[in-house]
Amino acid sequence: MLAQEVIRHKRDGQKLTKEEIDFFIKGATDWSVSECQIAAFTMAIFLRGMDLEETADLTQAMTRSGEVMNWADQNLDGPVVDKHSSGGVGDSVSLILAPLLAACGAYVPMIAGRGLGHTGGTLDKIESIPGYMTIPSLEQFYDVTKKVGCAIIGQTGDLAPADKRFYAIRDVAATIESAPLITASILSKKLSAGLQALVIDLKCGNGAFMANRDDAEKLARVMVDVAEKSGVSAKALLTNMDQVLGESVGNALEIGEAIAYLNGDKRNARLHELTMSLCSEVLLLKNTVASKQEAYDKLQQVLDSGKATECFAKMVAALGGPSDLVEDPFKYLPKASVIRPVYADKTGYVRAMDTHKIGATMITLGGQRKHLDQRLDHSVGFTDFVQIGDRLEKDRPIAIVHAANEDTFAAAEKQLQSAVEISDERPEETPIVYETLTA
Q1: With 42 labelled, which of 73, 78, 202, 382 sits at a CA distance of 20 to 30 A?
Q2: What residue spans define the domains of the chain?
Q3: Please, are residues 117 and 363 in contact by the beta-carbon 8 Å criterion?
Q4: DSSP run (H or E) holding 363
């Protein structure tokens, strides 16, 4: 079999066999298939598409390209579960969800990604914690997940290595926005962690990669079906990304918001609703609870008792971070040099916001990447961000900006002011969760 023949078959609109897909992914993993061939292959898929069976075969081949974690001999007393988000702005859910589910008796081996474009990445956020080991050995990943109940790490070289190579090439070959390739990339990483259940947070709106709800729903259905076909119980929630999710945007600042949430110091209503919805669906998937109300009660109990905070603290310490981070996070987290409010040029209600522009402002501040190897400033971002429906007065800012210097503060100030739309009348409230999809 030749790689160019596999490419030609897909280029001409043929359905690829499992053997052809396995052959190509094996070649991508052992480097017998070149970068230009991978680029041609992904472009053929981008243009011609794949049916559900092909997408599942591609996902499973990429999963098997490296180690697949096996929890069967670990004597766990709960299910192995996770959540994936398609990327948002001010989305600290993963930082809260992992310890929250662990406190409920589940095990969460979470392989997180970096920020992409205007969206924040969980891996970038946890890297703002001094000493935190984001790429442990596979043995350490097993050990921390088993002992603590959760571990949030980056993709190791052992897990889904074909995806690492494919993704880097897709990023420069203009083939990112392909449902089969997105599905295979996301699910191969998740499946390599040996999951039994997965809930997908598929965002739509002006701050999401899938702005159109119909497109988001189509992708969600493919992802759920492929996960189920691969032996993992799955659901997808279509959620609203027409505004900043929480009240903080930025790596260290979102760590701070997550800790404040877990400690009960401050819980943004929309962030809380989405977190509880996702966690409850995970618990329901594995029959850990009998009803959504029982799930909410159980989740609230571990929040109120401090058990979820304890799980987060143990995870941080086990992976090399400060043992007392949850007690005084900004004793350790980096702080910006310039911290000042930005005000709107008129009073009124926040009617809408350009969430994409707000996320892109993080690039201006240095908290997101212009290029792949850029060193991030983890201290920068926004806190106390307004929500749609809030009233802005002369003493109520759009947000507090955390910047490295006066120049980047001034640039961020202009971008924020132009990103928020103000009206005299209060707009109608929009739901955070639009729909829940099953296989």
Answers
A1: 202
A2: 3-49, 72-159+174-328, 334-423
A3: no
A4: helix 355-365
Q: For the domain bounded by 3-49, which CATH number is listed?
A: 1.20.970.10
pLDDT digits (tens, 9 = 90+) for 196-252: 999 999 999 988 878 889 988 999 999 999 999 999 999 999 999 999 999 999 999
Q: Which of 122, 248, 288, 408 is catalytic?
A: 122
pTM for the complete prediction? Answer: 0.90
**Quick check: is 26 catalytic?**
no
Is 337 considered catalytic here? no
334-423, which class in CATH? alpha beta
User: Is 65 labeled as catalytic in the residue annotation?
Assistant: no
114, 118, 189, 378: the catalytic one is 189
Classify 72-159+174-328 by CATH class. alpha beta
- State the catalytic residue, choosing from 82, 91, 201, 377: 82
Question: Do residues 74 and 44 touch, judged by C-beta distance below 8 A?
Answer: no
- The confidence band for 113, taking pLDDT boundaries of 50, 70 and 90, is confident
Q: For this structure, is 63 an active site residue?
A: no
Q: Is 291 labeled as catalytic in the residue annotation?
A: no
Tens digit of each residue's pLDDT (9 = 90 or more) over 124-136: 999 999 999 999 9
Those residues whose C-beta lies under 8 Å from the C-beta of residue 370, and which sit 6 or more positions away, are: 363
Contact 117, 288 (CB under 8 A): no
H/E stretch holding 136 reads: none
